[in-house]
Amino acid sequence: MIGVIAIGVAAGVVAGLLGVGGGVLFVPGLVIILGLTQHQAEATSLLAIVPVALVGAFNQDRYGNVRRSDAVLLGLLSVAGAAGGVALANLLSGAALRVGFALLILLVAVQLVRRALGQGNEGRAGGDPIPR
Amino acid sequence: MLGTSPPRALKLAAIGTAAGLFSGLFGVGGGTVIVPLLVLWLGYGEHEATGTSLAAIVFIAAFAAAVQGAYGNVHVLDGILIGIPAVAGVLLGTWLQQRLDSRAIALLFAALLVATAVELLLQ
User: Fold this and answer.
1) pTM listed for this prediction
2) What is the domain range of residue B122?
3) One domain, residues B21 and B59
4) pLDDT at residue A131, rounded to an integer
5) Residue at A10 is within a domain
6) Is residue A131 part of a domain?
7) Are residues B26 and B53 both part of a single domain?
8) A69·B26 Cβ contact <8 A
């Protein structure tokens, strides 16, 4: 229980910091701690992402960081891809998905390191809020 | 909005499709795809990209979750159990992003992700 809460909080922090949904931690947390299958964990992660992204987006909007029309367009234009992705996930075995997922989060780790190392001239993560 | 020229709309469509595919396939929001592409293709600043990505993810994850629900894979109670602490986490994360040097935090999370990947591969 405490493990699940800790993973949840950590996933939220990652979401807020990086502008992602937190799924990179939700999915392994649900598999490793709650014992869900890879398919169940991925599906459940998507549900958990919705309130996180909603609150995160609302918060970022107050800092002037959301380009609303682009965000809505992106969301609406993702529908076909998302439906295809879910269908594909349900065709693949849990083991194949798990390996793919592990590679995905390694990619995220590389992105993080590159961004952290490339941030020297900015100093802190915040910078000034960008006016809309 | 300053008018969406066709190439720009096409770029958004490509980013949205790629993000949706990632989201549906791996149960993530798709921000891993959205943030770098908004920066590289559309000239977004880092903070605008993360903010806009989060807003887009609301739509993407809601739709993908509904489709997964149709397959019977969604465990609603577990989703609530892990999602509610995460809402507190995201408030902390956006607050931190505005104030702190995130390099150490980013490197720490990178290490956490590598460890998680190894754990998943060993299962």
Assistant:
1) 0.85
2) 75-123
3) yes
4) 46
5) yes
6) no
7) yes
8) no
For residue A99, the distance in angstroms to the closest alpha carbon of chain B comes to 6
The full 3-state SS of B6-19, as one line of letters, equals: HHHHHHHHHHHHHH
Contact B29 A16 (CB under 8 A): no
B24/A81 touch (CB, cutoff 8 Å), yes or no: yes
pLDDT averages per 10-residue partition of chain A, 132 residues: 89 83 91 93 96 92 94 96 96 94 89 76 43 44
| Residues 27-56, chain B, touching A (beta carbon < 8 A) | 27-32, 34-36, 38, 42, 44-56
A129 occurs within a structural domain? no
Q: What is the ipTM of this complex?
A: 0.85
Burial call B26-53: b when 16+ CB within 10 Å, e when fewer: bbbbbbbbbbbbbbeebebebbbbbbbb
**Counted domains in chain B:** 2
Q: Report the amino acid identity of residue B56.
A: A
Asked if residue B87 and residue B62 are part of one domain, the reply reads: no
Domain of residue A12 covers 2-117
